[in-house]
Write a structure and sequence with these properties.
Blueprint lengths: L2 H4 L18 E7 L7 E5 L5 E2 L2 H10 L9 E2 L3 H10 L1 H7 L3 H16 L3 H4 E8 L9 E10 L1 H11 L3 E2 L4 E2 L1 H4 L9 H8 L11 E5 L51 E2 L2 E2 H26 L19 H26 L1 H16 L7 E2 L2 H5 L5 H13 L4 E8 L5 E4 L8 E4 L4 H15 L2 E4 L2 E4 H4 L24 H5 L2 E2 L4 E3 L1 H10 L24 H4 E2 L11 E8 L6 H20 L6 E5 L3 H12 L1 H18 L9 H4 L2 H24 L4 E2 H28 L8 H30 L5 H37 L22 H14 L4 H17 L17 E6 L8 H5 L12 H10 L1 H4 L8 H8 L8 E3 L15 E3 L13 H13 L11 H4 L3 E3 L6 E9 L6 H22 L3 E4 L3 H32 L4 H24 L6 H27 L5 H31 L5 H33 L5 H11 L3 H7 L1
Parallel strand pairs: 6-9, 12-23
Antiparallel strand pairs: 1-2, 2-6, 3-4, 5-6, 7-8, 10-11, 13-21, 13-22, 14-15, 16-17, 18-19, 20-21, 24-28, 24-29, 25-26, 27-28
Helix pairs in contact: 2-3, 5-7, 7-9, 10-29, 11-26, 11-27, 11-42, 12-24, 12-27, 22-24, 22-40, 24-25, 24-27, 25-26, 25-27, 25-39, 25-40, 26-27, 26-37, 26-39, 27-39, 28-40, 29-38, 29-41, 36-37, 37-38, 37-39, 38-39, 38-41, 39-40, 39-41, 40-41
């Protein structure tokens, strides 16, 4: 960049008296033979020559503060013009720090024009001028420039921190030929004067010394530090461009010390103390109960004490009796009028299910995980509506199985540099072939061909339509010929792709490397490819050690244009198809497209359909076979209940279809979680109720003069309240779960709540009618399924089922033995305590990527950028506020390990100020039309936007600010003007219609490398904290936006959401249980405690099984809350209505009657189906469904069938005196009294 100016000159800042010295050159002579378009200076050893008026003006412009007046100089106006053109890029990048640019101009002005040249310059080589008209002149083709080391160091120190806002790097990274961290005072100046930079027409050899050398006195002019203002009134450099101006570096706050007791984690100590205290109290209570004399009593004592029944007990008995009578009458009606009930049910189901024609499934991850009302979603919508959606990303990560290392030996000297196998030339050629094949892919959308050029991000279009491809191959302009370019002879390789690669990773924006190749590094799309984006698997900044290449194709995204979005999706589909079929034994490719997440959701759901179908078939077969109670082999087909089981399953599926249909009518979209989880949930609830109804009927004996419809009505009156209790608890819990802000949880809760309730209604109506028909078939000795076939009459002896006998005679008595019960309590408490102590955390490692995602600090509409106050609140250059937006983000980047902000932000405002300066050649317009004139245009009618006056050098404000801003945003960067804003900022500024003002804008930087979920969550938190601080200091809203925020925001509140959802669900279950158990508060407490214990143990299992807490697992936790009701409520209700003598006997009766149905129903049914899910190929089924569903069933069964009966035997509610009196009065003297005693 400097080279053009290097060939010509600089300014003389000394006010020393002119002594007997002479010039080294004067004027321009022949064309350079090494750098076409550049000229040599003419050899001249005479005295300085006076400048003309035009030269004086140029001298004042280029070398401010050094006014020679009529003094004679060693340069003419041609040299000054060349100097001006050559220093355009340094001016644009370094003039934001006045002291830096002043010192730099000092270096060049002294070199070019100083009347004291012979003091510090020595021309050492000359050639004759080939022009016949200049036969008496010769060209200076080499010169030695003696520079004071103090001056060089001071110039470097003033410039080393200056930023290049558009590329988020230091300016010296673009102007030193290497990364800024490797640049120093001497190699920077050596690069600027090096013939190999492609700009300097002849070698200028700098010699650094603070003492005279070989009779020459080094140039050691006065310099300014970056903290100093200049004599022309320019202020000191900003903190962002001058570390000395910042004061002490910010220090992140220390981490809070861990909370410990005696050096041990405090929570662990508290939990263990609580657990030990519980055990001691429990053991003491058990021992006390054993030593206490027992006084057995009979429940019939309560007959005489009915008057002692409390108000709540009486109210509970009346409520219980009302439900019993209601359900009995309804059951009798359903059995008497089966066709009416079944037909009515079919009509309702058909009407509800017809809404499925309006069904639409949401697979958009944003719609699944982010609520429209959430902060991240609203900020995303704001960003998309003002700047357009964030581009779509297609990415490849390419590795090789080869472990070879290629050693590169630099010429002429240097240590060998190892290049990993993926960076060998033959590998790069193969990768380039792959990349070019991808560029050439052609997809079809609605009969129209779609190529990458149709959809890709081309920042310089329409002037440069090349697609942005962030690939290391773009260092070679995606060309095989450039990759093979080398300078060599039979003895040495002077430069090849190795040297070009090493240069480009240090200076990716260079237009010309410093090797003999002189090839550009900048990509074909007109922008740099930063090595941390295109390479992976390296250490530190040793990019030659990279083990992976990362190729990224940014594709335009479209907010409301379905056609363009459809084209992008079609090309991405072809991209995926091509890479799936691509094969190369030397390359291992991992790839993703923007649509990959949605495709994966679809694939995950479709790939395991067979597994899910097998799972459901197993559950269906088990239900159909297990419902039957086979009395003998001869009556196998009579006593079986296959048709009834199938009918029960169809009822479950009908309830699911009805729920989906009703919400589809309402326009609520489905999610795949709903489709995959709700049938499982409703089948669990429905099967449990089916087994309870059928098995209660099978165990019952019809009383004298009682008809079938009366018997089934009576049975329904006994069991339906329990079914209603569980179903209504679950329904209410799910509907309250719909209050969640998380769309996936809310949608699931709504669909699940309605499906469970519809299932209950169909079971107490349609299924009861079908049960009546099946009972008549069985009593008529007709075969199941083949109803027209009838067996001959025979004596049937009714027996209890094996499972019921096992529970009644073996399991229940054993689990409730005096010595077994304490062991159960202690085992469950150990499980509870041990699992409660462990946290849940997330793991999601990324091996190769070395860059963080971009983050945009968005300034909302309303800030007045045309005023100095508005500008100072945002910008980062001279005169800007110390707490401006750019300055605060820059300060945050200094402690990136804490803030996760990696770089200084790109600032369109600061680059605009540099672009519009009158000294720059960037801002010009045609004086006859007022239209913008690009810096590369040579036309005499093009004039500078602003005058070279004191006011013209100030920032533009008011109308002038808006006049030139659209020109800046349309200007493409080029060799003469690197500050054009089209590529970097065309989407960063939302202009009002007719360019009347500036609306919303953004300032982009990057996060640090984020690999784990906790990194992404922390990055989101810190960005919001930083944005809040900026908002307060500006008194104008600023928010951060990055593409991952909408997905990770759920983790900021996932603990709160989980606690809220589960607490609300538990509260609903508690209230419903209290009411429906006849206002038995203590029973509801026991149910809630047991379900809470199941949930806590679920968290423990999630930790043990490495299941992260997210929206999917939260849905499963809400579901487990509902399913746990099935394991607990039936047994607690059976206990509460039991009239046995004591708690142990009541628990034994409840476990025998209801426990066997729960075990054969929900437990065995789900267990068989879940085991098949272990064969699933997809991670989501393996982790979130198989592991969590299995845990739900096992923990539910363990608590409901083991722990709960024991807990009831200890602290279960006392018998309801009113219920006992009513029960015994109702059946006194009837056959039912014998059954009750049995």
């Amino acid at each position: 960049f400097f080279g053009h100016g290097l060939s010509t000159g600089s300014n003389s800042a000394l006010s020393l008296t002119v002594q007997a010295q002479h010039c080294v050159w004067y004027g321009e002579c022949g064309e350079s033979t090494k750098v076409p378009g550049k000229k040599y200076n003419c050899n001249y050893t005479g005295p300085p020559i006076p400048l003309g008026q035009e030269g004086d003006e140029l001298l004042t412009e280029l070398c401010p503060g050094y006014n020679y007046g009529n003094q004679s100089l060693c340069c003419n106006v041609d040299q000054l013009r060349t100097l001006k053109g050559s220093l355009q890029l340094p001016l644009q990048f370094l003039s934001r720090c006045p002291a830096c640019f002043f010192n730099l101009m000092n270096l060049f002005c002294e070199l070019t024009c100083s009347p004291h040249q012979s003091q510090f310059m020595n021309a050492t080589q000359f050639t004759p001028d080939p022009d016949p008209k200049q036969a008496n002149k010769s060209n200076v083709v080499e010169v030695r420039y003696y520079i004071g080391q103090t001056f060089a160091n001071a110039m470097y120190n003033a410039c080393k921190d200056v930023q290049a806002p558009s590329s988020n790097v230091k300016a010296l990274s673009l102007l030193c030929g290497k990364d800024a961290k490797d640049c120093n005072a001497t190699n920077w100046i050596q690069y600027m004067f090096d013939i190999n930079n492609g700009q300097t027409p002849f070698p200028i050899i700098p010699i650094f010394s603070d003492v005279p050398v070989s009779g020459f006195t080094p140039m050691n002019n006065k310099t300014y530090e970056c903290t100093e203002g200049l004599e022309d009134g320019s202020g000191p450099c900003s903190c962002q461009d001058c570390a000395k101006a910042c004061g002490p570096k910010p220090v992140p706050p220390p981490l809070p010390p861990p909370w410990t007791i005696l050096g041990i984690d405090a929570m662990t100590v508290i939990m263990w103390i609580s657990y030990v205290a519980f055990l001691l109290i429990f053991i003491g209570a058990v021992l006390g109960a054993w030593n206490k004399p027992r006084h057995p009593h009979n429940s019939r004592q309560f007959f005489s004490l009915y008057v002692d029944a409390s108000c709540c007990e009486t109210l509970g008995e009346r409520f219980e009796n009302a439900m019993r009578l209601l359900f009995s009458a309804w059951g009798s009606f359903c059995v008497q009028h089966p066709l009416l009930v079944i037909l009515g049910s079919l009509i309702v189901v058909a009407a509800s299910s017809s809404g499925l024609v309006y069904m639409r499934v949401t697979t958009d991850p944003v719609e699944l995980w982010s609520s429209p009302s959430s902060q991240a979603r609203q900020e995303k919508d704001y960003f998309d509506s003002h700047f357009g959606p964030f581009f779509r990303t297609e990415q490849l990560i390419i590795t090789t199985p080869s472990n070879d290392t290629d050693m590169y030996t630099p010429y002429p000297a240097g240590l060998d540099v190892p290049f990993k196998a993926i960076l060998k030339k033959d590998m790069l050629h193969q990768v380039l072939d792959l990349q070019l094949d991808i560029e050439g892919l052609v997809a079809t959308y609605e009969g129209e061909n779609v190529t990458l050029k149709d959809i890709c991000l081309a920042p310089l279009a329409p002037y440069n339509n090349n697609c942005t491809i962030l690939s290391v191959l773009n260092y070679f302009q995606n060309s095989h010929a450039r990759l093979d370019h080398s300078i060599e002879d039979e003895f040495f390789v002077y430069a090849d792709y190795h040297s070009h690669f090493l240069y480009c990773v240090s200076a990716p924006a260079s237009l010309n490397d410093t090797t003999l190749l002189h090839d550009p590094c900048i990509g074909t799309f007109g922008g740099p490819v930063f090595p941390w984006i295109a390479l992976g698997g390296y250490d530190g900044t040793n990019y030659n050690n990279a083990t992976a290449l990362v190729i990224t194709f940014p594709v335009n995204n479209y907010l409301n244009d379905t056609v363009k979005r459809g084209k992008a999706l079609a090309w991405e589909k072809e991209f995926i198809r091509f890479l799936k079929s691509y094969s190369n034994p030397n390359l291992t490719i991992a790839f993703s497209a923007e649509r990959s997440i949605e495709d994966e959701i679809d694939r995950e759901s479709n790939s395991d359909i067979s597994t899910i179908v097998v799972s459901y078939i197993i559950m269906f077969v088990y239900i159909s076979l297990a419902l039957g109670h086979i009395q003998s082999l001869r009556r196998l087909l009579v006593d079986s209940k296959i048709s009834l089981g199938i009918a029960g399953i169809l009822i479950v599926l009908s309830s699911v279809a009805s729920s989906l249909g009703i919400f589809s009518f309402a326009g609520v979209p489905l999610t795949l979680i709903v489709i995959e989880v709700i049938p499982f949930l409703v089948l669990a609830v429905g099967v449990d109720n089916i087994f309870i109804i059928v098995q209660t009927y099978q165990r019952d004996e019809r009383m004298h003069n009682e008809e079938l419809h009366q018997q089934i009505g009576r049975i329904l009156g006994d069991v339906a309240p329990s079914m209603f209790l569980s179903s209504f608890s679950e329904t209410l819990a799910f509907f309250l779960g719909a209050l969640s802000n998380m769309p996936a949880v809310r949608t699931f809760s709504m669909f699940a709540g309605l499906a469970v309730f519809i299932d209950f209604l169909l079971q107490i109506s349609c299924f009861v009618s079908l049960l009546g028909l099946d009972a008549r078939r069985q009593e008529a000795n007709r075969l199941d399924i083949i109803c027209c076939v009838k067996l001959p009459e025979g004596q049937v002896e009714k027996t209890d089922g094996f499972l019921f006998r096992f529970f009644k005679k073996v399991y229940a008595p054993f689990i409730l033995k005096e010595w077994v019960r304490p062991i159960v309590v202690m085992c469950v408490s150990i499980l509870f305590g041990g699992l409660f102590l462990n946290p849940t955390y997330f793991k999601n490692m990324s091996t190769y990527l070395h860059t963080g995602p971009p983050v945009y600090f968005v300034v909302e509409d309303g800030l007045n950028y045309s005023s100095l106050e508005g500008q100072n609140a945002v910008c980062g250059g001279v005169g800007c506020n110390n707490n401006s937006l750019v300055q605060q983000v820059y300060s945050a980047s200094l402690i990136s390990n804490y803030t996760t902000i990696a770089y200084t932000p790109s600032s369109w405002l600061d680059d605009y100020f540099d672009w519009v300066k009158p000294q720059s050649s960037c801002c010009r317009y045609y004086n006859n039309t007022g239209a913008f004139c690009n810096a590369s245009v040579v036309n005499s009618s093009c004039v500078h936007c602003r005058p070279m006056t004191a006011s013209g050098k100030q920032r533009p404000v008011g109308e002038e600010f808006m006049r030139f801003l659209p020109m800046f945003l349309s200007d493409n960067p080029n060799v003469k003007c690197g500050k054009g804003g089209h590529a970097a900022y065309s989407t960063a500024v939302d202009l009002y219609p007719d360019n009347k003002g500036v609306g919303a804008t953004y300032f982009m930087t990057f996060h640090t490398i984020l690999k784990e979920s906790s990194d992404f969550i922390g990055a989101l938190k810190m960005a919001r904290v930083l944005a809040d601080n900026i908002t307060q200091s500006m008194d104008h809203r600023v928010f951060p936006y990055s593409v991952f925020y909408v997905f990770y925001e759920q983790y900021l509140t996932i603990a709160y959401d989980t606690a809220l959802n589960l607490s609300v669900s538990l509260a609903a279950i508690f209230v419903v249980t209290t009411v429906l158990l006849g206002f038995e508060l203590w029973s509801a407490v026991i149910v809630s405690i047991t379900i809470a214990m199941i949930l806590v143990n679920m968290f423990g299992v999630m930790w043990l099984w490495d299941i992260s807490l997210n929206a999917v697992s939260l849905v499963n936790l809400v579901m487990s809350c509902g399913i746990s009701v099935e394991f607990c409520s039936h047994i607690v209700r059976a206990f509460s209505i039991s009239v046995k003598n004591n708690r142990v006997e009541r628990a034994e009766e409840a476990l025998a009657h209801m426990g066997s149905s729960v075990f054969s129903g929900i437990t065995l049914t789900k267990f068989g189906g879940i085991l098949i899910l272990a064969l699933s190929k997809s991670q989501i089924f393996q982790i979130f469904y198989f592991r969590m569903f299995l845990s739900i069933v096992l923990l539910g069964a363990a608590h409901g069938l083991i722990f709960l009966p024991v807990l009831l035997s200890y602290i279960g509610p006392s018998v309801n005196k009113a219920k006992v009196f009513a029960s015994n009065t109702r059946y006194l003297g009837t056959e039912r009294e014998r059954l009750l005693n049995y």
